Amino acid sequence: MPVQSRKQETAEERVTPLELFFDLIFVFAITQVTALIVADPTWAGLARGLVVLGVLWWAWTAYAWLTNTINPEEGEVRLVMFAAMGAMLIASLAVPDVFGDDSLLFACAYAFVRIAHLVLYTVAGWGDRDLLGAVARLGVGTAIGVGLLFVAATLDGPAQLIVWVAALVIDLLGAYIGGGKGWRLAPGHFAERHALIVIIALGESIVALGLGASRDLDAGVIAAALLGLAIAGALWWLYFDVVAIVAERKLREATGSAQLTMARDSYSYLHLPMVAGIILFAVGAKKTLGDVGEPLKPVPAVALCGGVALYLVAHILFRLRNVRSLNRHRLVVAALLLALVPLAVELPALATLGLVAALCVALIAYEAIRFAEARDRVRHATEPAARAG
What we know:
Layout: H1 17-39, H2 43-69, H3 75-93, H4 103-124, H5 129-152, H6 157-174, H7 187-212, H8 219-240, H9 243-253, H10 256-269, H11 271-290, H12 298-323, H13 328-339, H14 341-344, H15 349-370, H16 372-379, H17 383-386
Helix pairs in contact: 1-2, 1-3, 1-7, 1-11, 2-4, 2-6, 3-4, 4-5, 5-6, 7-8, 7-9, 7-11, 8-11, 8-15, 9-10, 9-12, 10-12, 11-12, 12-13, 13-15
């Protein structure tokens, strides 16, 4: 099977149309996870939704690394990508009953997705001893993680969830072994791919707002929809205004194993809690629009306030990993959001949504004013500086 490396491309850092098409399946998967949590707004339901998200995320990020190394639109690779998309679609369709009758179906479809990834990576790395070694190390965690999903399909109740958690943790650790040695990276493409997945997650939050408002539109519902949009816009701003730009430049400037471990930690690992935070916000917003005048139940309240807080904490860790400094103002707002949870179960849901929106907007206003000069330098750097490294 001929495989064309991105290093052979003149535009090696361009996200291809097939990658974007592949990501549409992940859009559906995210929608299914949101629906799974909304359908069972309990602590157990919340835990199940998050662990399913983690498993699906790790499949997506595996392909993000793969298509960062090879051109997915050439030769038989394109056909394998379509086959993997089909399997991912089946896995996503199984999500609503993934802890019930469709657990085995999910495991089979997911196994195909991960095996296809390893096969393509092996072909791509043929003759490259370091890359093959990295694929082999990843394959160990993949094999154990996927195998445990088949074990989980034979169980039910808490034991099933525990095995799912074990499968996810072991799979995540598979990429940590070896410290990034052997992998190949096109930094601009990799950063762009993850920025687009943040957009996809934010798009799911907009979809959740629309679905939550699908009833008689009164002033309260309209106000809640606009407040939800304001929060989604704030989450976009907090990532794309400066953070994404600085992170990409840091990734470009790094070299060797330092660049590879930065990509793994900052993007493969730390973007998971970012996406999880957005999805939890979507769950809380959807529940808010369901009845704006009533207080939220404990789990939706945690999802709404805690989801945005989790998103901010991921940003804090993202910055700590990339520039070795602590973003204290985002930490303060995250703490305030968590402190809002006890009020959220007492106040009307619309009021809670308004307070979350106010905190997000206040944070953006503070950063824009307090760091205006630094922000201007980052956003309007000349192209050579932006592409340094």
